[in-house]
Structures are given as C-alpha cells and as structure tokens.
Amino acid sequence: MNPIRLIAIKERQALLKDQRGLIWLLVFSIVLSTFSLLLISNTELSLLDNAQVVYLLIGTVTAAGAMISVILGSDAFAGERERGTLVPLLTAPITTAQLLVGKAVGLLTAWAVMYLLALPYLWAVGAGGQNLLQAILYLALFGTPVVLGFGALAMALSARTGSVLISLMTSMTLLLFSAGVPLFLDPSLRDSAIGKALDMINPFATALNTYDSVVVDSEAFSYQLLRLVLGVAWLCVTLIAARQAAHKPSFR
Amino acid sequence: MVIFMENIKLSIDGTRILDDVKLHVETGQIYGIIGPNGAGKSSTIAIILGLYVADSGKLELFGETVGRPSIETKRCIGVLPERAGFYHWMNACDYLTWYAGLYGGLKRSIPELLARVGLAGVEMRPIGQFSQGMCQRLALARALVHSPRLLILDEPTSGLDPRGRREIHDLLLYLSREQGVSILLSTHLLDDVDRLCDRIGIIHQGRTVLEGSLSELLNSQDTGNDFRLRMETAPDHTILPKEARLQASIGGWWHLHLPAGTDPADMWRRLMDHGWRIQEIRAEADRLEGLYINMTHTAGSAGSEETI
Questions:
Q1: Chain B contact for A3, CB < 8 A?
Q2: Domain span at residue A169?
Q3: What is the interface pTM, i.e. ipTM, of the complex?
Q4: What is the pTM (predicted TM-score) of this model?
C-alpha cells in the first residue's frame, strides 16, 4: 500500500479511535450546539437576519476548524517525537515528503469530519433563508485553505521545534491574532489602505470577507477570485514551510 | 561488509559530537558499541540511520557509499530505538501489520513473530495495556517485521527481567548465526556484550578508542585486575604503585585496580606490612569491565544521556 495512504489511515484512526481525537470532535460539536442554540433562542440574536446567522455560524466553523487543525498539526511531528514514535517513522522506507503529505491528508480528513458535523447545524439555523447552499459551498472553498494553512503552519513549527507546547502556543497565538484583527479593528480603520492591506494578507479576514460578500450581500463568485487566490497562496506558503521543516525534523 | 564507517565527524549547533568514529560490521556479525553516557553512541547510530548527516568521513552500507540511506537501503534495516513508543489505541497485531505496510507488506505471520519475542497470545490486546518489558519486546518485533538484513538495536534488553533478557539473547544469536542477520548493538550492559558480541567498539568522547573482536582485545590489552577490599579505616594509598587506582565505595568497601604485571599476593603482603587492615578481598573477574573502565577512564567524563 502507498505509504502516504498508510500514514493518512493512521491519522484517521488517531482522530476516530484515540480518545484525544474524539474529545476534540466532541468539543467542536458542543461549540456548534451552543452557538446555534444562542442564535435561535437568544432574544437579540434571534432578531438577526437569517443570512447574518449563517454568516456567523460558518465563521465560527472556520475558526473552530482552524483551532483543531492547529492542535492536530502541533502534534504531527512533535507529538510523535514525544511519544517515541517518530524515529520508527523516519527510519522506515518512506520519504519525509510522503510523511508530511500523509499528515496533511490526515488534517484534511479531520476538517472533512468537522465540515460534515457542521452541516446539520447550518441547516438548523439557515434553512428557509437566503444563500444557505452558497454558504455551504464557500465554507468548503474558502474555509479549507484557511484551516489547512494553519494546520500546515503548526506542522512546520512542530517539526522545527520538536515541542508540542511551543508549536501549539505559537500557532494558536497567530490564529487568534489573525481571527481577532477583523473583529476588533475599527470599521473606519479597516476601510483605510492599511486596513485593506492587513485584510489582504490575513487569511482569516479573507475568508470572513468572502462569507460576508456571498452570504449577506449575495455577490457573485467572480468578485471573490482574488480572495480565493490569496487563500490558496496562504496554503501554499504554509505547506512549503512545513516541507522545509519536515525535511530535517527535530527527533531528539 | 554491511557497515563501514571511517573518520566520521559530526557537529551539532557548533558542538563537536563525534570526532573520528570508526566501525566495521561484517555479514552475520554481532557488533557491540559501548561507551559512557554522552560518548556518542546514539549519534553514531543516528548517522547510520540517516537521521544526521556526518560533516566528514566515509559511511558505506551494504557496500554503497551513502550520506543518508536510500529507500531501498532502509528496507534492509530494522531499528529498535532507545525509546520504544507506540500508538496506544492500536493492538499489537494491527500495529505490526500497519508498520509492515510501510516496508511493502507483511513477510511473516504476526502470531509467529510475536511468539518469537515472547509475546504469544497478546495479538489483540491494546498496546496501552502493555508493560514496559512487553513494549520492549514489541519494539523488537517491529524491528523484525520485514525480515531485515541488518538490525540496529539501542539498549535492546532494557526493562526486561533476567528470563526475558536471556530469551532476547537467544533470539539475537539465532538471527545472527542461523539467518545471517548482522546486528549492531548499543548497550550499557557489558553482560549483553560478553554473551552476544563477536566484535566491539568502545566510543569515548566522540572517538572510537578501541575496536576489534572481544577475544583479541582481551588478550591484547592486559588491563590488570580489579578487586574489592573491605577495610575498617581509610588506608594510606601512597604505598600503591603509580598506575593503581583506589576508590572508596559504601559499607567499608574499596575498589582497587592493580595494573598489569602486579602480583596480587605480593601486593597484599606489602599493604598489610604498611598497616592496611584488610578484612576481606574479593576479585572482580569481569575482564571486559576492566577493559571498558580502563579505556574510558577520564575524570568527569559522564555527560548527559543521549537518546534516539
């Protein structure tokens, strides 16, 4: 069997059989349940436009997906090292590139599971409103590069530092900063040249702006092409960083 | 020759770790690397496995010069690292089947393999429930799962009870003598080396200070004799020959190393005449230990333990 497939199968088993993987999926479901319940039952939030509710929920799914991706990515090399399972992988007849791709497929699988878990919640809060299908489609199209990109960044740090704690803290800080800027930056500042430039290089802001344009403002796909390119570029840069770091991972 | 290593040098973060390591392992031979903590044994193994690339020197595996071993070369090597880690949610059978897949698939039956390493009947038990000794045996099964031509073992008997150690010794001897598997063994246990190894290399402070067959080395290096003495009071050691070493131990016992050519009986008489109140003398007959201590005797040589 192809080594990439074997590594990916092991990663899938770690997610679905190991208690730690199952706990993260449970946490993800609880976050979505709580958020959906708030959107439907809270007096003020329930007054929100249906499209706004869907927009908020897919933003939350992307953020939670990126967080879990960062946790899994941080474990990718450093966790193997700390468990004493990295050396058997590095001495097996597979290349570090195959190992990395297998791990990345594992991240993609985790994101796919989270995406599927999110669908009923999206249906519950957005059924009957506008642009639900577009929201589901754009979550896949724009959420995937963001989620995988942060996972790849965490994998790069994990391979370079050999420490789950350091890679987790560093990539989580970057994720929180990336997610926090669009939320906490004053709207007038976001409309300035600096704000727009920040939005352009911030993968999370790119995804949120796209969700807003498509789900709330019903803009066409052609307006989102540049953002898609930026999202894919973010994914490529982080994957290259992970490839470089995984070539000589810290194993001691 | 399975492993040919000459003049290997390695620096990590500006610190010289290896400085002239050599190692020669023939087909079917069991080669023991011994040395104090931090001497460079694990770094030497890491170079052979391609985890580090040497700064200079020559490394040949199966007759081919390598920097890092190729995928094909890796297929011929089985590794037991010092830390035997596993995925605890898997059972032994699933884990070995999965790991064998990385080598192109199973080449032997899992129950038979587990029985060989003393783990019969635990195929379906989750690895999380294994004891340390069972994990060590499973790690050996993992190293053997693809029937390698070269086994590289770092502390293979650590965590095993005496019976387990004996079983692993027997298995390694069988693999070497009957199957022609070459084995490179790194260990602190000189008993393992004495029972198993055809050839040894002593590494000290990043250098191979001695290499050869065990019998050759013991015969060529007359290292003197070691004794344990029990005495009531601290003795006056100025009477001892210059090359002798006296070291206090616990409970009134002292270690005494007498250099080659010293007649012990004559020495005891002289010491007693000079007021040594010796109550008991025990000879320490382990010549390999004497050789090892002699070759690695440097004040404050103990460093941090290295692991791969």
A1: yes
A2: 3-247
A3: 0.85
A4: 0.82
